[in-house]
Predict the 3D structure of the following.
Amino acid sequence: MSLSDSSKSSIFSSGSLSSSKYSLTNSIVSALKFSRLLQVYILSRLLSNRVLPVSTVKFDLKDDLEELQARLYLDTRKRLTKKEVLEIAFRVGLENYDLIVKEIQSKEKPLDDDVIQKVLSLTEDLGPGSEDLSSKVDEILYGGS
């Protein structure tokens, strides 16, 4: 909406627009630009505070979440939504990252040699006639000998 310098000079030379009108036009253009910037700023602030789209996650610990929600209510007398409880748990988890790592690692305990030997020994004692069991299974499944 701004006028180029050649357009300005031709308007003034023709006398069709006085300098006061030009000044007023300039002020209006500046106000419109500022208004547009203000609109963009306000819109960006509104969008940044807007809740982002929600994703759905299958959650197997629903009963535990409800129990935690109830216990938090009893201790704080504040009603929290499940979403709020999960957000708090997530923030606490971020602050205690090492505990999460330890929890994951504790579930990945390597099997000791005794357990491995016990599992392997189970396949050896399937009773009489089990010596050629794998070939029978192959014959039934794949139709060959």
Observations:
- The helical segments are 5-14, 19-49, 62-76, 82-95, 97-106, 113-122, 133-142.
- The first helix runs from residue 5 to 14.
